[in-house]
Write a structure and sequence with these properties.
mainly beta; Lipoxygenase-1; four-stranded antiparallel beta sheet; 2 helices; 9 strands; about 10% helix; globular; disordered N terminus; disordered C terminus; PLAT/LH2_dom_sf; signal; PLAT domain-containing protein 2-like; PLAT/LH2_dom
Length: about 200
């Protein structure tokens, strides 16, 4: 279940979120990278929200990846906000940093169109590129805040390989909007609200 707190303007949240993410990832973060405008809050009724994600790569052999990772977020009505490249959209680490490495948590933040509250649906997709295309993702934590919405935190557990072949898939969905009613009707669920049904028990 998502935890909520009273909403504050987005730029007030950054000093609190970024140090926390630096602590939880164990590595420095470039504070406020690309977010100096506070997502346009206060500039004539902006409909932009701040999304902050902490992505945990598993600690299995070959768990890290060089592939591009995209993410799509949605609320209960499944109207979506899509990020085609998570790293270029909102990577908060330093230049030259390697994202999605084995055993590490990475932080991302960016502004985007607000979706229906609270965010409770997520899709991760790997493009399968690079010399290490397979990726084992443990979980994603999402913080979201908007001008007309409460700040909310949601955790999505994956524990799956995103990979081509070997019974794996390049896409995984987690639908926590209706956890007891099966998948979201996209054909990419397993009927248990757990995405594509990859159980994550196999290693590359």
């Amino acid at each position: 279940m998502a935890a909520t707190i009273a909403w504050k303007p987005l730029y007030f949240l950054l000093p609190f979120l970024l140090p926390f993410l630096a602590y939880s990832t164990g590595r420095p973060i470039i504070e406020g990278a690309g977010l100096e405008q506070g997502c346009g809050v206060g500039s004539g009724g902006s409909n932009h929200c701040l999304y902050t994600l902490r992505v945990q790569t598993g600690n299995r052999v070959n768990a890290g990846t060089d592939s591009k990772i995209s993410v799509t977020l949605a609320g209960p009505d499944h109207v979506r906000y899509h990020v085609p490249n998570l790293e270029s959209w909102g990577g908060l680490m330093w230049d030259g940093y390697n994202y999605f490495e084995r055993g590490y948590a990475d932080a991302f933040a960016g502004c985007g169109t607000c979706i229906t509250w609270p965010p409770c649906w997520i899709r991760l997709t790997s493009d399968g590129s690079g010399s290490h295309p397979g990726w084992f993702v443990d979980f994603v934590e999402l913080w979201a805040a908007g001008p007309d919405s409460q700040c909310t935190k949601h955790r999505f557990d994956f524990h799956v390989w995103l990979a081509a072949g070997g019974g794996h898939h390049l896409t995984a969905v987690r639908d926590n909007c209706r956890p007891h009613t099966g998948n979201n009707g996209d054909g990419d669920g397993d009927g248990n609200g757990n995405g594509n049904g990859v159980d994550g028990d196999e290693e590359k």
